[in-house]
Each structure stands twice: as structure tokens, then as C-alpha cells.
């Protein structure tokens, strides 16, 4: 199966829309043999999307307590990846999907998560200043991940 890039989030929850918006920009740069999907973060949909994949990149807004606009790169298969109760405004989050995938033996061979620390996940569109300032770097890092992990 082709590698996959997933943008997770809700465009109508301000900074929470960073995943789908970054994917929209990145999709114009993806090689033809890389698939793209926008998802809401619900674990079973993530499991279905990444089942059988060799490489998956997930782009999402994640809360760790770091300053807004901080870019995080996580190994999604890391045994230490733990669900955080407030990690996302759209559901249980990536860590919960990974835990379920591990239990069901439905994980990709490689899973990289690029997360951007949000500031404002209230209703509405448009990013906070901190997320807007980091957005281009997020897209660049996502492109680098694809180039590094996908044979050209």
C-alpha cells in the first residue's frame, strides 16, 4: 500500500484545524504514490486508514503544555506515547488510536506524528498568531518527513 499523510482536526475549531489545513497545502507537493486523507481523529477511522501501510505521517494540533506554536515530532509507535486527557479537542487522540492499534495488531510499520501546540480551539475559523507563525515550518517539516520516508 502507498504511504499515507493524514491531516487530523476540525477546521471550524480555530487552531484545531491545523492538520487539515497543512495537508491541503502539502497535498500539492506530494508524489503521486502518496495518499492523503483528512480525518477527525476518531480511533477506528485512523486504524482503518493506516492498516497495512508501511509509512504514515499524521499532522495534528496536540496539547502538551508547551508554548503555543511549538512544533512536536513524535514516533507514533513509541511505547511511551500515552493518551493525554486534553491532547485534542476532537476526540481521544492519536495515542488512544495507537494503543487500540497495538492491541489489535493494526499499526503501520512507521508512524510519525507532527503536532503543533494550539492556543485557541474555540469555535470559528482562522489560526491564532502563534500557530500562524509556525504554520509554514509545520508544512516544511511534513514535506521533509515524506521525502525522508518515501522512496522517490
Kindly summarize this structure in a few lines:
This protein has 152 residues and is an alpha/beta fold.
Compute the number of helices: 4
CATH level-1 class: Alpha Beta
Mean pLDDT: 90
- Quote the beta fraction: 15-25%
* Number of β-strand runs: 5
Number of domains: 1
Secondary-structure element pattern, one letter each: EHEHEEHEH
Give the CATH architecture.
3-Layer(aba) Sandwich
**Order of strands side by side in the largest beta sheet?**
2-1-3-5-4
CA(first)-CA(last) distance: 15 Å
Characterize the overall form. globular
| Residue share in helix | 25-40%
Structural class: alpha/beta
Major sheet size, sense and barrel closure: 5 strands, mixed
Radius of gyration: 14 Å
pLDDT below 50 for ≥5 consecutive residues: which ranges?
Answer: none
CATH superfamily grouping: HybD-like
Fold-level CATH name: Rossmann fold
Structural descriptors:
152 residues; alpha/beta; Rossmann fold; 19% strand
3D structure, described in words:
There is one protein chain. The longest helix has 21 residues, at 129-149. The protein has a single domain, classed as 3-Layer(aba) Sandwich (Rossmann fold). Helix content is 32%, strand content 19%. The protein is built from four helices and five strands. It has a five-stranded mixed sheet, with helices on both faces. The radius of gyration is 14 Å and the shape is globular. Strand 1, helix 1 and strand 2 (35-39) form a beta-alpha-beta unit. With 152 residues, it is an alpha/beta fold.
